[in-house]
């Protein structure tokens, strides 16, 4: 079992729709969870962090965490073509190590 | 506010050679992590340096080694290069506060290594 699993996609949504990205993790002791965005040919950029169960909203982005189910998700509302990128789920495991999933490619069609 | 800087941005080596990659962390950060990202994959954790010591290591062979300097900058060294070492090498800086690491990573633009 991979430590952090994501659907590789691609996920295609029309402009203005809600994009939903999902992630599961294996280390039940993990406490810190992150979403990074990576444009093609660029390095990852942190867009959301979440540390407690529930929802966290930042502009058009909402991160959701359910530690009992070991599940993290990212919702992007009013998706724009500029949101087209690979979204990486990352989990900080015990001992200062942050593990990344393989990423989900998102395409937003104009 | 200077971000994370890496050098060189691109380099080509042949099998068996050695390479050194360099990283300067974001201003105010004291922790440096190195990742390897193959095409179409997520970043794979190599190791993390804090207080000039390797604090955590991923599943990479001993051919991969590193160093952190008193000014928090870091180097990644790879010996006896293999074709499979071709990848984007990412440096990420963060801040360790007390016994906790904030976990929020700020990445440099990476060093793209091609091994022929």
Features:
heterodimer, A: 110 residues, mainly beta, globular, B: 116 residues, 7-stranded mixed beta sheet
Description:
The complex is a heterodimer of chains A (110) and B (116). By secondary structure, chain A is mainly beta. Chain A is 0% helix and 57% strand. Chain A has no helices and 11 strands. The model of chain A has no long low-confidence stretch (mean pLDDT 94). In chain B, strands 2, 4, 5, 6, 9, 12 and 13 form a 7-stranded mixed sheet that branches. Chain B has a 4-stranded antiparallel sheet with strand order 1-3-8-7, with no helix packed on it. Chain B is globular. The model of chain B has no long low-confidence stretch (mean pLDDT 94). Chains A and B meet through strand 4, strand 5, strand 9 and strand 10 of A and strand 4, strand 5 and strand 12 of B.
Total helical elements of chain A: 0
Per DSSP E runs of 2 or more residues, the count of β-strands of chain B stands at 13
Average of the residue pLDDT scores of chain A: 94
Helical segment tally of chain B? 0
Helix percent band of chain A: under 10%
Radius of gyration of chain B: 13 Å
Structural class of chain B: mainly beta
Unreliable stretches of chain B = none
Which class of secondary structure composition applies to the elements of chain A?
Answer: mainly beta
Shape of chain A: globular
Helix content of chain B: under 10%
Q: Sketch the topology of chain A as an H/E string, one letter per element.
A: EEEEEEEEEEE
Largest sheet entry of chain A: 6 strands, mixed
C-alpha end-to-end distance of chain B: 37 Å
Percentage of residues in strands of chain B? over 45%
Give the topology string of chain B: H per helix, E per strand.
EEEEEEEEEEEEE
Q: Assembly state here? A: heterodimer
Write down the overall mean pLDDT of chain B.
94
Could you give a short account of the major beta sheet of chain B? 7 strands, mixed
Residue stretches of chain A low in confidence (pLDDT < 50, at least 5 long) are none
Gap between N and C termini of chain A, in Å? 37 Å
């Amino acid at each position: 079992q991979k430590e952090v699993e994501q659907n590789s996609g691609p996920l295609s949504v029309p402009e203005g729709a809600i994009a939903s990205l999902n992630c599961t993790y294996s280390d039940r002791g993990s406490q810190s969870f992150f979403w990074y965005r990576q444009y093609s040919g660029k390095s990852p950029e942190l867009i959301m962090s979440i540390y407690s169960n529930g929802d966290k909203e930042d502009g058009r982005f909402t991160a959701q965490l359910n530690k009992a189910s070991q599940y993290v998700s990212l919702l992007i509302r009013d998706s724009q073509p500029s949101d087209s990128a690979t979204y990486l789920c990352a989990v900080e495991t015990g001992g200062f190590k942050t593990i990344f999933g393989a990423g989900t490619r998102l395409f937003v069609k104009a | 506010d200077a971000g994370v800087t890496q050098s060189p941005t691109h380099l080509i080596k042949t099998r068996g050679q050695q390479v050194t990659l360099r990283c300067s962390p974001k201003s105010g950060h004291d922790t440096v992590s190195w990742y390897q990202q193959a095409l179409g994959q997520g970043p794979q954790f190599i190791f993390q340096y804090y207080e000039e010591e390797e604090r955590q290591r991923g599943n990479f062979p001993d051919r991969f080694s590193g160093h952190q300097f008193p000014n928090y900058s870091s180097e990644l060294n790879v010996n006896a290069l293999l074709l499979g070492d071709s990848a984007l090498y990412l440096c990420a800086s963060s801040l360790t506060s007390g016994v906790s690491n904030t976990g929020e990573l700020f990445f440099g633009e990476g060093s793209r290594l091609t091994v022929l």
